[in-house]
Amino acid sequence: MTPQGHTPASTPAHEIWDRVHSWPIPSSESAGLAARVAVAGPGPTAPQNGSALQIEPARGIPVVFLHGLVGLNDHWETAVVGLRARLWCVGFELPLLNLRGDDCSIEGVTALTASFLRQHFHTPPILVGNSFGGHVALRIALEHPDLCGALVLAGSSGMLEQSTVAEVQIRPSHEWLQKKIGELFYNSAAMNPADVDRAFEELSNRDSARAMIRLSRSARRDVLRERINAIAQPTLLMWGRQDVVTPPAAAEAFHQKIKNSRLVWFDNCGHVPMVEASQGFIDEMLRFAHHLGAQAV
Prior knowledge:
Radius of gyration: 18 Å
Strand order of the largest sheet: 1-2-4-3-5-6-7-8
Number of strands: 8
CATH topology: Rossmann fold
Largest sheet: 8 strands, mixed
Strand content: 5-15%
CATH superfamily: Alpha/Beta hydrolase fold, catalytic domain
Number of domains: 1
Helix content: 25-40%
Low-confidence stretches: 1-11
């Protein structure tokens, strides 16, 4: 892994993704907003009409990455560097803290994500979700099983979560945010200072802070414990043993309830294994994809 988490020094950020698209959100409540869709992978895209985003591979199963509540596509970049030569990677980044009305909820984000998947993929993708993104992936697997070929969950919410939402401040101090974001990591040196700066800027906006509180509370109310055993998709669970947000007990519960699941532990790792245990994350992803026959080369 890289000391600051996201991008290996030898690979400039602009070279990680082959291209980045903008996907207008199809909702009157969040009119004018767009998701950022980043694509990287081997080989050509499938034939598409002129109006379609070029994001579905000509062969292989696409892998769609869903970020957490304060996440970005950037947080998957270290993993994508190690995966893109063999897997078709698509980062789907919704402007979560700008969503409005019913869109600003776990149900709303699930509906928007399902709309994107249905519009752009003929082959059900592997959904890879961290934290809130894992929760969205779980809901899609349950409610739209035709849109999910397999699941990879890393520190997913939806089962058991230790939230600090009650502590969220309007216009929080930079020092407070540095402490809270640092708690996501086993080793706070893996934290990217730019994430603290971005969070400080976003949460200094009253509407963005309220959106984060609303989304977090919505996810905490949406406990999927009694529904999880209906998930039939092959599932890979990757968890940090030192995760204090979605603790190890959550991983064990997911593993027990999802019949076709495998649980991988990373030592000295917190809530973001794709950053703190990036090589292990890459290796397990490739092993899982090989088992599924998902590789594009």
